[in-house]
Amino acid sequence: MVVTQLSTRLRHGEGNSTPTSGEARIRIRDVTLSYGSLQIIGGISLDIAPGETICVIGPSGCGKTTLLRMLAGLARPTSGSVELDGSVLGGPSRSVAIVFQDYGKALLPWRTAAGNVSLALEARGCPRAERPAIIRELLEKIGLGRHADKYPAEMSGGMQQRLQIARCLAQEPKVLLMDEPFGALDAMTRQALQDEVLGLVAITGATMVFVTHDLEEAIYLGDRIICLQPNPGRVGRVVDVRLVRPRDQLLTREDPEFLRLRRELYDIIKDDHQ
Ligand SMILES: Nc1ncnc2c1ncn2[C@@H]1O[C@H](COP(=O)(O)OP(=O)(O)OP(=O)(O)O)[C@@H](O)[C@H]1O
């Protein structure tokens, strides 16, 4: 019942992570971005379908975070445009949520877990009376049901990152942007959160753009992997991932196709470094 309510509220009608060839949720058109005379992004075009999960990999400094900031409306392209559902994104939108690696800075230390999630509900004008049930449901879904009254400082890194994700989902985003969200976490927590995020994306039908340095994480999560090349940042190879969903930490990673993709990405990255 609880999950049904969540999925009903959060779903946007496009079904779960099945890319379609119809209208793009995000359309990136010939985007460049320069800081002064330094060109950081050098002409990126990409369509991302509703419900699709795109993973972005590439060498340090190639512009992954900058690209994500443009998709969030936090950085303005020098030329070209980013469209969300056919409208040019002019700035931050409630339809787009971003999860940062640095969960410590993203959370308000003086608010409890429930208070931090409430922040997103307050921002979208959710009636006060409805908030406790939604907060409870989201915290339960992300495995923090028993920690609603804890402050961020009383929580582990994995719990804080879960909380940041719960807060973003409270925003009911159509697009979830993740900037190396699990980079600072241990392997087991990381795998658990990968599965939780995939589950939530499947329930809500959200479109996800996920930046990672971890090739296996990109394959495990993605429908497509965009390999960015540096100086200036541009799309190199695009790799389709046709592994079945739901994915499974053991079976998916043992799948011969997973191993083939890992080899392919490894070779691409190696070539880009030469
Ligand atoms: N506000 C800014 N002013 C000037 N240069 C910037 C600014 N933000 C980023 N850059 C530069 O843009 C380039 C791309 O940075 P970005 O953080 O997008 O790369 P990245 O691929 O995410 O790197 P990493 O993998 O190390 O996180 C870097 O050379 C960085 O120094």
From TrEMBL:
InterPro entries for the chain: AAA+_ATPase, ABC_transporter-like_ATP-bd, ABC_transporter-like_CS, ABC_transporter_ATP-bind, P-loop_NTPase
Keywords, alphabetical: ATP-binding, Nucleotide-binding, Transport
Entries under SMART domains matching the protein: AAA
GO molecular function: ATP binding
Domain of life per record: Bacteria
Signal peptide coordinates: none
Pfam families: ABC_tran
Gene3D superfamilies membership: P-loop containing nucleotide triphosphate hydrolases
Location of the ABC transporter domain: 26-255
Homology family: Belongs to the ABC transporter superfamily.
Protein name: NitT/TauT family transport system ATP-binding protein
Source species of the chain: Rhizobium miluonense
